[in-house]
Design brief:
The structure holds 2 protein chains of 2 kinds.
Chain A lengths: L2 E10 L2 E11 L4 E5 L6 H8 L7 E6 L2 E2 L4 H4 L3 E4 L11 H11 L4 H14 L15 H13 L5 E5 L7 H16 L3 E6 L2 H7 L2 E6 L2 E6 L1 H7 L4 E6 L2 H10 L4 E3 L4 E5 L4 H13 L4 E7 L3 H9 L17
Parallel strand pairs in A: 3-8, 3-9, 6-7, 7-8
Antiparallel strand pairs in A: 1-2, 1-4, 4-5, 9-10, 11-13, 11-14, 12-13
Chain B lengths: L1 H4 L9 H20 L2 H22 L6 H32 L3 H6 L5 H29 L8 H28 L3 H4 L1 H8 L15 H9 L2 H13 L6 H26 L4
Helix pairs in contact in B: 2-6, 3-4, 3-6, 4-6, 4-7, 4-9, 4-11, 6-7, 7-11, 7-12, 11-12
Classes of the chains: A alpha/beta, B mainly alpha.
């Protein structure tokens, strides 16, 4: 494992933010930390990137103990946090070249990499303008580009698309996709299920400072149930008849839809439609659906939420 | 793309890397400061306005204007240098509360390099504004009788004073919770010279204030600069000035580095 964290605990004052978080990412893998606001995602990333010291637990990055030897670990990763980490009063190129110098690449190589990254992130046209004149999407891209100057083995991205419009988000997803194809190991946090679904090899669901589930997006979806068949019926009478035939079905009277469990296969679809025709039910439409990560998210976080981020009673915090 | 991302085999430790980081961060701070029009204009306009105020408004009321100009200029120069150096606290606080600080802190870069950069920029900014103030003073009738050596010594004392105050400002900037609270030092540095020998001889002050004026660090620095430029007796002020500034510098450098490392690493 390139990134491995075990038993991370962290309290701020009497508030327990993390309560025994384990996670790991293999070389070349994209790991998404998915969770609602206040779940502890940012604290996890800050601990992984040596900015915050955990109360308990270990972090290893490429075998280096990041808690005990933060200085060594810092040579191995890069962080793009939530807040913009770009100097507004420097130009895009100056920001990148500065990062090259800080990575001790030498003048020539720093300039070469800056050119390279400007090109790759489609920022060449604005390279010599101060970043304060740039758009939000461009700023986010240079933020990410600056994290790549030193050639990190691991990249931590804290909510990479927060604050971007849909177009900016799509561009950012493409950029991240390119990085991943280039072999960079990625740990990212997000509140957007779609984002996790689209980018991540594995998802860790974080809620109330704990990992409530983890696995591939597909595996997580199976966790809340398999495929479903949504049947839109023409009239209320038909709706009643389907409900009689399938007592387990979920009936939505307003939308005139019935949802049945399914194995996702064509045979089952045919069987259901034949059965409905025989019963004289007029069908308007049929849709086969897999559960979305939204379903997973709601199923796994909702019950825990009311009791989750409990403040630890003052005297008992270890 | 993979080639561009290959991790370079470079060392991030050792004296060369540390020096390189300091130079990089100094270049950054100098660039940022030279493009920060507000701070730059304030650190030049305010001193010149104050100079004009003391020379033309108060100067006429107090004894002869020409003599008072010679008396007050060293104080104004110190006031401006102090104010300019103190504004570093706001620069550092703004930088320390921005997202940039997390990026810098998560790099294998020694933390003191960041603060060194800010202090280098502060010294450069103050060298510029001090030169402007001295120039304005000469235009307003300041007639120093200092030779080249005295000017050099004056520059040295001012440099030490600005350096000590800049590091002190950097320390307060790191400790401050935001830019607003960091501006408290600027206020203090605007106010403290009035309780020194800058504008009136301490002998004219009430006893309590006189005790403050005679024992605070700004007075020996002003007396030293005044002595060097206009030939008034320096006495023990020279040593006191160097001791005060050196002491503040040593404490502030150590404490600022410590505070910067601690902050955020909660």
């Amino acid at each position: 494992m390139l990134v491995e964290a075990t038993g991370l605990c962290k309290s701020f004052g009497a508030t327990r933010v993390l309560d025994g978080v384990d996670l790991s990412a293999a070389e070349g893998e994209v790991l998404a930390l998915l969770g609602p606001n206040g779940a502890g995602k940012t604290t996890i990333v800050r601990i992984l990137s040596t900015l915050t010291r955990p109360d308990a637990g270990t972090v290893r990055i490429a075998g280096v103990d990041a808690v005990r030897e933060p200085a060594r670990a810092r040579a191995l990763f890069s962080l793009t946090g939530q807040a913009s980490a770009v100097d507004d009063r420097q130009t895009g190129r100056e920001n990148l070249v500065m990062m090259g110098h800080l990575a001790h690449l030498g003048r020539r190589e720093s300039r070469r990499r800056a050119d390279d990254l400007l090109e790759r992130f489609d920022l060449t046209h604005a390279a010599d303008r101060r970043v304060q004149t740039w758009s939000g999407g461009m700023r986010r891209r240079i933020d990410l580009a600056m994290s790549l100057v030193g050639g990190p083995r691991v990249l931590f991205l804290d909510e990479p698309t927060t604050g971007l419009d849909p177009a900016g988000r799509a561009t950012m997803w493409d950029t991240i996709g390119d990085l991943v194809r280039g072999g960079t190991t990625l740990v990212l946090t997000t509140q957007h299920l779609e984002e996790a679904d689209r980018l991540a090899d594995r998802v860790v669901l974080v809620d109330g400072g704990r990992v409530t589930a983890s696995g591939t997006p597909e595996a997580l979806k199976t966790l809340v149930g398999g495929d479903r068949l949504e049947i839109r019926v023409a009239d209320a009478a038909g709706l009643r008849r389907v409900a009689d035939l399938h007592p387990a079905a979920v009936v939505d009277r307003e939308g005139r839809t019935v949802t049945l469990p399914s194995d996702g296969g064509a045979a089952h679809l045919h069987a259901v439609l034949d059965e409905l025709r025989a019963a004289g039910v007029a069908v308007d439409g049929v849709r086969s659906a897999r559960p979305t990560l939204d379903d997973v998210f709601l199923a796994l976080t909702r019950p825990a939420s009311p009791s989750a981020p409990q403040p630890v009673a003052a005297g008992t915090a270890a | 793309m993979t080639t561009a991302l290959a991790a370079p085999a470079v060392r991030h430790t050792g004296a060369r890397a540390a020096l390189s980081d300091r130079l990089t961060m100094s270049a950054r701070s100098l660039r940022l400061t030279s493009r920060d029009a507000d701070t730059l204009v304030m650190s030049i306009v305010l001193p010149v306005l104050l100079m004009a105020l003391f020379v033309y408004v108060f100067g006429g009321a107090i004894s002869g204007r020409a003599e008072y100009v010679d008396y007050v200029v060293p104080g104004i120069v110190l006031l401006c240098a102090g104010y300019g150096a103190a504004s570093t606290a706001m620069v550092v606080a703004a930088d320390t509360t921005s997202g940039m600080v997390d990026r810098l802190r998560s790099l294998p870069v020694r933390s003191s390099a960041v603060l060194t950069g800010h202090v280098v920029a502060s010294v450069a900014r103050n060298a510029l504004s001090t030169a402007v103030v001295v120039g304005a003073a000469l235009l307003m009738g300041f007639r120093p009788d200092a030779g080249p050596l005295e000017w050099l010594a004056t520059a040295g004392v001012l440099l030490l004073y600005v350096l000590a105050l800049s590091w002190l400002a950097a320390l307060l900037g790191v400790l401050a919770s935001g830019v607003e609270s960091a501006s408290a030092l600027s206020f203090l540095m605007l106010f403290l010279p009035y309780l020194s020998s800058a504008f009136v001889p301490p002998e004219t002050l009430p006893t309590a204030l006189r005790a403050v004026a005679e024992h605070q660090p700004i007075t020996p620095v002003i007396e030293t600069v005044r002595g060097l430029l206009t030939g008034t007796p320096i006495g023990s002020s020279g040593w006191l000035a160097v001791l005060w500034c050196g002491g503040i510098l040593a404490v502030a450098v150590t404490a600022a580095g410590w505070a910067y490392r601690r902050r955020g690493r909660t």
